[in-house]
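Morning. Coffee machine broken again, so started the prediction first thing and wrote up yesterday's gels while waiting. Chain of 408 residues, entered below exactly as on the submission form.
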Amino acid sequence: MHSLDSSLCPMTFATLVSFFLTLSHSLTLQSDIEALQALKLSVDPNMIPPSSYLTTWDFSVDPCDNIGPKFLGILCSSPSNNSKSRITTLELDGAGYDGFLPPRIGTLTELTSLDLSRNRFRGPLPDALKNLNKLTRLSLSGNFFTGGIWTWIYRLKKVERIDLSENCLSGRIPARISKLRRLTQLSLSKNEFSERIPNIYALQKLQILDLDSNMLIGSLPKLPPRLRTLRLSHNKLTGHITSLVNLDHLISVDVSDNWFTGPINRGVLALPRLSHLNVSFNQFTKMEVNNYFGSGSRLRTLDGQRNHLRGHLPVKLVNFERLEVINLAHNQFTGQIPMAYGQRLGRPWRTLFLDYNFLSGRIPPEFGPVAVRIRGSLANNCLSCPLRIPLCRGQQRHASACHGVTDG
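Came back before lunch.
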């Protein structure tokens, strides 16, 4: 492995002249070559593994005039006239490169894909990234980048996918991100973004929004209508989730570990494509289930544990024919376990956690023979629950804790 600077030292004058003549006649635009050099020089050479892509970047040859083991991670354009070739793709392997992203990266103005994910790049993201206005894919996830994104990100008008997850980025998510009208995927999870989620309704093509594990506050804004995946867990969001009822394309929703209140709306449970719903670790007080809905639902997973859900268990959950995993533990449900629940055990319910509630009375008879095939728990309730039944293992609440609540 050698960089341009280290390779010049042993050169004779004739070799040096020959080298620069080669560069002057190279297929690749000189500023693109210099950008690659700057990127390699910005990485600690001790953090470049022998089998990694950067070891193949040998600047004694032309980046765009090589087929084979040189300049892995690079793709170039093939101009039809006498113009120079340009770097169009820069996708490094996740080898743990430790370095900075140099401002000269902004001269690679023909880039359509930039992927430096799963490394150890750090420092602020340079404003020069705004010059990469032909990018359709930007992935810098799994690094240690710091600072904000508001000064440059909205300039990437052609970008379709942005993944800046798992960094140390902070500040607010800029409202002008709504100018990226081609965006289909936005992942800013596992950072330190704060303040409110901006109005991004104008992102009409957005299908995946992942803002997990930040410090976002406030209520939900009006969200783009084509969303399929929504991840907002581990923030400080408040208010209701009623606005989700208008997002008919939703398949997966995770709003866990926030401060949402009010009901888990019947319209959310009735979303036609919804398969996974995680509303756990919030402050919801009611779960609304339509008496007539469920047979056409695609819902498979319902996680509502650790809320303040009250009243009786919703009987009509049995109408959700594809439902397999239910977790309503650590709530305030009272009354008996509906007899109809027994008919769903193993058909297709395979996971049922109802522990740490205030349920009372006898359990449905089906819980006995099939319970060995069911993962879950009925512990810490006020039930008459024989310990020979696997789901009943674990103590029930003391009678004093059940007084006055057993009838729901």
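The radius of gyration is 28 Å. Going to sketch it on the whiteboard this afternoon.
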